[in-house]
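Supplementary Text 2. Reproducibility record for the structural model of the 183-residue chain.

All settings were left at their defaults, and a single model was retained for analysis rather than an ensemble. We include the record here because the model underlies the residue-level annotations in Supplementary Table 4.
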Amino acid sequence: MQRLFIAIDLPDAVIAELKRIWLPTGDDVRAVRNDQLHLTLHFLGDAEVDRVAEALKNVSVPSFKFSIVGTGYFVGRGASFVLWAGVSNYAKLQSLYSAIADALLTHGFNTEDRPYSPHITLARCQNLARRKKGVSWTDVEKFITRSANLRIADIPITRFGLYSSTPSNQGPIYRCEREFLLH
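Retained model, structure tokens:
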């Protein structure tokens, strides 16, 4: 069994645009590497690749386009937080998300209970409230202000992937285990 999730890869040109966004720096900030940027659809946790791939093989959704708009942050456990880029054109993305959820449920997999909140993680920051050095709330506000006008339009989505996640000292390493084409 491997730790698995389902996601959409981003085109190189989109990754280049996202990497132009100003991020706070410091020991407590881990920017997501270029090869790890993606849009998560579902997190599965520990599961068998072949079994999940079997569940996903008949997902039938037309290809579509979405846009990246604005930025924000989520506060996590222990005062850690995630800096992210937002997503628009939600209806078509929601259709793909729902079709995958239906396929997973039909094959006995559990899906998350919380509402889907599509975003692209740009950086992970640790224990903001407890640090005297490194990232401050002023840095987070600067990130939001500097990237408030972020707009990357008409990103084509023609496929999604089943990914494994392996922990490492530099953050998780993602590997595409299977790809599924949209039509």
